[in-house]
């Protein structure tokens, strides 16, 4: 994880040091860089199951895309008669551990040790309208990477624990084996339907539903969810960014006003047919647990945007994902976005 933090810092420094990015460019020419960190230390601090995730993502300006992305409009037009609006790319790492990190070998019946080092390519197609804001965005995403020792989960977690003086995780020799994995996702996020507006202080309340499906050796699942928001200038984005498979917004946002904010809460329900981190390796025997077929995330948080910056915090409670887990899990997510 320290490696990814260094990459994130280096990428941000490179952007800031480039004169073209230092200029105050028109809004329609600005892309968005987002750093998302999810960790159980941002909530109750319990070190178990999904213990950490970090992602550095870039989203292009609207209608500023390479030719190969524009050439995919046959796919998006067939689905919703919408052309690609923006694209994105990301790198990230996620870490999973059992509850008892002192046991050697790792205890059976608890979440297997696993690291996931990955890249993502994303294409988004907003509703094709002119006289008003689009009502929805379709997100097409390819996630690919390596599970196992090559994902550097052991090194990342041990490094963080040493820096914090936390107990050393000792069971990483039992982690999943090296395997290339992938997932292809299609998700629709509706821009929120306003329930109340014209309230004192220019407050508004809206509801933003979403549906999606994912297929691949990494995950195979279908999901449905919705978020409720109260705040100002709610049309500026599609919700706070998260690390998959969580209920996620889109890294892209627009500065609808010099300052905006909203409180939000949401529920994400997933029907899971495969999760490599619970089911184990695809082509060889490995640690595994009995996965539950349905998982729910309940989340709440706050997003604040000022100028070209947005900061969001999300608190997440996730239901039991496997038999014998014993209790639900909670963790927090911080997302910092910058338009440049």
The gist of it:
By secondary structure, the chain is mainly beta.
User: What is the CATH-assigned architecture?
Assistant: Beta Barrel
How large a portion of the residues is in β-strands, by DSSP E? over 45%
- The number of helical segments is 6
Q: Which structural class should the secondary elements be placed in?
A: mainly beta
CATH topology: Lipocalin
| Overall pLDDT | 87
Low-confidence stretches: 1-22
CATH superfamily: Outer membrane protein
Number of DSSP-assigned strands: 13
Can you put this structure into words, describing what you see?
By secondary structure, this protein is mainly beta. The protein has one domain: Lipocalin (Beta Barrel). 14% of the residues lie in helices and 45% in strands. It is built from 6 helices and 13 strands. Strands 1-2-3-4-5-6-8-9-10-11-12-13 form a 12-stranded antiparallel beta barrel. Strand 8 and strand 9 form a beta hairpin. The chain is globular.
């Amino acid at each position: 994880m320290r490696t990814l933090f260094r990459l994130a810092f280096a990428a941000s420094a490179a952007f800031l040091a480039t004169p073209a990015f230092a200029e105050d460019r028109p809004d329609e020419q600005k892309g968005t860089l987002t750093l998302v960190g999810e960790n159980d230390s941002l909530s109750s601090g319990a070190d178990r199951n999904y213990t950490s995730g970090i992602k550095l993502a870039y989203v292009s300006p609207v209608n500023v895309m390479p030719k190969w992305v524009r050439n995919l409009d046959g796919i998006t037009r067939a689905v919703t008669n919408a052309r690609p609006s923006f694209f994105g790319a990301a790198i990230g790492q996620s870490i999973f551990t059992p509850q008892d990190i002192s046991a050697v070998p790792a205890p059976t019946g608890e979440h297997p040790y696993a690291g996931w080092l990955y890249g993502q390519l994303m294409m988004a197609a907003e509703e094709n309208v002119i006289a008003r804001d689009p009502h929805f965005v379709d997100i097409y995403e390819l996630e690919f990477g390596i599970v196992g020792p090559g994902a550097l989960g052991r090194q990342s977690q041990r490094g963080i624990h040493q820096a914090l003086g936390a107990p050393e995780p000792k069971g990483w020799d039992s982690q999943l084996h090296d395997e290339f994995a992938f997932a292809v996702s299609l998700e629709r996020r509706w821009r929120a339907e306003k329930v109340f507006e014209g309230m004192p202080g220019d407050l508004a309340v809206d509801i933003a539903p979403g549906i999606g499906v994912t297929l691949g050796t990494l995950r195979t699942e279908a999901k449905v969810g919705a978020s409720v928001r109260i705040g100002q200038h709610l049309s500026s984005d599609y919700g706070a960014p998260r690390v998959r498979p969580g209920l996620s917004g889109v890294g892209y946002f627009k500065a609808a006003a010099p300052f905006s904010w909203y409180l939000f809460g949401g529920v994400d329900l997933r029907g899971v047919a495969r999760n490599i981190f619970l089911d184990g390796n695809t082509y060889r025997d490995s640690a595994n647990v009995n996965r539950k077929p349905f998982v729910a995330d309940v989340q709440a948080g706050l997003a604040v945007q000022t100028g070209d910056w947005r900061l969001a915090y999300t608190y997440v409670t996730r239901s039991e994902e496997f038999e014998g887990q014993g209790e639900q899990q909670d963790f927090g997510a911080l997302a910092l976005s910058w338009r440049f």
